[in-house]
Amino acid sequence: MAMNTQGRPSRPVHAPDPGAYSETFSGSKGLDQAEPLIFERGDFDNCGVDLPEPKGLKTRLDGLERKSAIGLPGLSEPETMRHYVRLSRKNYAIDLGLYPLGSCTMKHNPRLNEKLARLPGLSDIHPMQPQSTVQGAFELIGELAHWLMTLTNTPCVSMSPKAGAHGELCGMMAIRAALDARGETGRRRVLVPESAHGTNPATAVQCGFVTDEIPADASGRVDMEVFKSKLGDDVAAIMLTNPNTCGLFERDIKEIADLIHEAGGYFYCDGANFNAIVGRVRPGDLGIDAMHINLHKTFSTPHGGGGPGSGPTVFSEALAPFVPVPYVIQDGETWAMVEHEQEARDLSGGEPFGRLVAFHGQMGMFTRALSYMMSHGSDGLRQVAEDAVLNANYILARLRGEMTAAFEGTCMHEALFDDTFLKDTGVSTLDFAKAMIDEGYHPMTMYFPLVVHGALLIEPTETESKAGLDRFCDTLLKLTEAARDGDTGRFLNAPVHAPAKRLDETRAARSPVLTWREDETAQAAE
C-alpha cells in the first residue's frame, strides 16, 4: 500500500470490487449529485424566505385575491440554486463537449456575444418605448439587416421571423401574395425534395399549397429529370435546401432556379445550412427569391433552450414589395419603424402581405449575431464556412473505412452514414446512439434524412479542434469494432452511466406524465 508523507494510506494496492458499493446510501455518486424533482424536495407548508406577515395591509385586488395555496414548493435561495445547478450537470451542452447533431449546426456561442447582448440600453429596452428612445437599437437592426443582404446579395430582408420555420412561413406567404397579385390563384403546387426538412412541406400546406415530392438521384441530389417533368402552369414554387440535408451541394441549383422561373414559379431556399457557404457563395447569385437565415445556426446565437430564436428572411426584387411590416428605415440621421401596411404602401408603393408578429424580431439574438459578424469580419466568416466543411470531410475520411458513407465523394458541412456497417451485428442505429451517451457524447442526428436507411448525420461545425475530432472518431471506431466483435451487451443495455437509463420511448411518447402529483408514483416509460 502506497503511503504519503504523513504515513497515511493514499491508495489501496488491491481495490475491492466496486460492485459491492456501486449504490451509495445518499444516491449521489461523487460529484454526480442525486436530485429529486423540486416538488419532492420542497416544503409546501413553508416559504423559503422567513418574513413576518405584513400588518395593516389593505389589498388592492378588489376581490381577486388568491383563495387557495399556489401549489408550489418553498425552497431557500441556496436550495433553489443547488437544485438547478445539479440539473444543469445532467444536461449535455456545447460548452461541455462536441455536439455532433447534423442538420442543426450546434456551434459555439462566444462569450463576447453574451457580454454585448447584456449591455444596458440593449438588454433592458421595451418594445413599447417611444421610437426616439431606441434609436441605437434601430441602428443595430439596420446594420444587421445590411450585412444579411450583403452576404446573400439580396435587396430586402424581413427581420421579424422568430425561427427558421417562421422564416419559411414569411417567405411562402410572400410568394402566395405575389401570385395572388398576378391573378394566378391557380398556382398552388409546391415542389419539395424528399430530403427536405419536415418544416418545408408543413409550411407550404399551412399557406394553402399542396406539395409534390421530388426524389433524389443516386448522388443524393435532386433528380433533375423528375424535377423537369413536374414543372407546369400550376407550380407556385420549389422549396430547396442548399447545401441539402444529405450534406451535399446541389450542383444544378442555377438550372433549377432558371427552370422554376421560366415556369412562372418562385425559388424558396431553406437557409438552414448557410453556415457551410457563408462568405463563399451568395445565394442571390444562384437565383433564389426567398431564403430564411437561422441566426442561431450561422451566426452563433444560442440554439434551443426554449427560444426565442430568430430567422430573418431575405427576398429578391420580385418579392420585395410583399415583405411584411414592421421594418426599420433610415431617414438621414434618424431611424424609424414602419408599423402599418398603409404606411408601407405610401412609402414604397409595395403591398405587404400583412404583419407577421406583434413586435419586431428579437433584440438579444440580433445583438449576438451582429457581434459575431463584426468580430469575424468578411474574411473570418469565409473561414468559418471553409473550416466547417474541412472538419466534416475529416470525419468522413476517418470513419468511412469502417462505417458506411451514404454517398460517394466529399461532403459539405456534415457527413452522412447509413447503418450497413451494423448489419448482422444485432446492434441497431438507436443502440449505437445510446452507447455513445455512455462514452460521454451526445449522439449525432439519427434516422434523418429519411432517404438514407438508419442514417447517422454528423455535423462538427468549424469550432472543433483536430484533437477533439480525433477523440470523437476514435470512440466511434471503437464502438464499431465492439459491435462487430459481438459485444452486444454494451449496446443493448446502454446507457448505463447516464442519469436516466434507457426508456420505453414508444410508451413515453404515447403516455407521457406531464404533471406531478403527490399520489402518483408511476414513472412513464421506465
Automatic annotation (TrEMBL):
Where are the annotated segments for Disordered? 1-28
Q: Which classification does the entry list for the species? A: Bacteria, Pseudomonadati, Pseudomonadota, Alphaproteobacteria, Maricaulales
Q: Where is the Aminotransferase class V domain?
A: 197-304
Q: What is its EC number?
A: 1.4.4.2
Q: Name one GO cellular component term.
A: glycine cleavage complex
Q: Which species is listed as the source?
A: Marinicauda pacifica
Tell me yes or no: is Oxidoreductase among this UniProt entry's keywords. yes
The free-text function statement in the UniProt record for this protein reads:
The glycine cleavage system catalyzes the degradation of glycine. The P protein binds the alpha-amino group of glycine through its pyridoxal phosphate cofactor; CO(2) is released and the remaining methylamine moiety is then transferred to the lipoamide cofactor of the H protein.
One example GO MF annotation:
glycine dehydrogenase (decarboxylating) activity
Q: Which Pfam families match?
A: Aminotran_5, GcvP2_C
Q: Where is the Glycine dehydrogenase C-terminal domain?
A: 386-489
- Top-level enzyme category: oxidoreductase
Q: Which UniProt keywords apply?
A: Oxidoreductase, Pyridoxal phosphate
Q: Which reaction does it catalyse?
A: N(6)-[(R)-lipoyl]-L-lysyl-[glycine-cleavage complex H protein] + glycine + H(+) = N(6)-[(R)-S(8)-aminomethyldihydrolipoyl]-L-lysyl-[glycine-cleavage complex H protein] + CO2
One Gene Ontology term of the biological-process aspect is:
glycine decarboxylation via glycine cleavage system
Name it: glycine dehydrogenase (aminomethyl-transferring)
Superkingdom as given in the UniProt entry: Bacteria
